[in-house]
Amino acid sequence: MVAKIFIDGEAGTTGLQIRERLASRRDLEVISIAHDKRKDLEERKRLLNAADVAILCLPDDAAKESVALIENDTTRVIDASTAHRVAEGWAYGFAEMAPGQTEEIAKARFVANPGCWPQGLIAAARPLVEARLLPADFPLTYHGVSGYSGGGRQMIEDYEAQGAGASQYMPYALTFQHKHLPEMAHYAKLGRAPLFEPVVGNFAQGMSTSLPIHTDMSAEIPTGKDLHAALSDYYAAIPDSFVQVAPYDPALGKTPALDPQAHNGTNTLTLFVFANDALNQAVICAVYDNLGKGASGAAVQNLNIMLGVGARESLAA
Fold it and tell me: For residue 155, what pLDDT is reported?
């Protein structure tokens, strides 16, 4: 049976990337809305109700409107907006987040695709909280740099129009009220939101994030090897995982593998552990594609899980 897929918002950055990833599939029929009817409520309603799976690549309010337009009890939904990420009745679409998460996504009717920034934090922090190597109330700081495509079409146009004059490094969200904070704290199992400082770099896509830890603030005082073992064991136990943990080398002070563009075009997220046990300091870094594992790649992975096909269909690892 060929599943009908409707991408509501297919003309946006995430929608275009999803469509590109699905273009060669023979087990799917991607149904599209005519360009001149993209804002036609009745036409969107018709296509949403005709789809087996609707993928929403829309602003929050528009995503909520789309869900409300679905009148049947069969259309399943993947929402790439922020609207439903901590909402009751929605499965969180980070399949590697915990044992059993893939099964939850597989049986869910409504799946909230995770944000790009939260995945780096959740991937690094949740296994350590679960292993009691990181207290849930730890005062975490979280920093990273992402390509300008993470800001959507307007930011892409602004950066490309400025060319060489565009800012190379621009911190933002310095009111510390970023919309991803509830999602980060909830799914990383943190008792307090992290102090989050995101940065936009003058490159199109890809991202690298850092989670610094004063290990002596934990009762366990974990070593770098302890942190690395906890992360490695956690992700080794999750089938079809796109999250990998790089080998631990306590002497490693830098590596080109931390290039934020290293995993562009893939659905891979790689974690790195750096530590100085004598100073009781460590940093967990994550590298992934903000448009891959951070957006459209994750959506396709969730679609595959929901349809019961191979997790790696249409996805480069």
Answer: 80
